[in-house]
Design brief:
Length: about 90
């Protein structure tokens, strides 16, 4: 949803996954398996639209998810809002 922040979603997701008590070697497999259960709406539809076997690592899933729902342009706008001026004037 528009009001949901993808970084917060990932934080809550990591927090939830941490309760499973998995050893580090199984952590990536756990993250890949349960991530879809944390999504709804447009985010879930996006994940389901990805071609089979195109997301093979958690690093890839996370990068593509953030790129889709928090693209670099949003990051720049957020930094500019904090500074209250365009970054190029800094």
């Amino acid at each position: 949803m528009d009001y949901e922040e993808p970084h917060s979603l990932l934080y809550i997701f990591y927090e939830l996954c941490g309760t499973f008590g998995m050893i580090e070697t199984d952590e990536e497999a756990l993250l890949l398996r349960v991530f879809s259960f944390s999504l709804i709406g447009k985010a879930k539809a996006w994940l389901q639209s990805q071609p089979n076997q195109s997301l093979t690592s958690w690093k890839d899933v996370k990068a593509r998810f953030l790129s889709k729902f928090f693209p670099p342009s949003k990051n720049t706008k957020a930094k500019e809002a904090i500074c209250d001026k365009p970054l190029c004037e800094a």
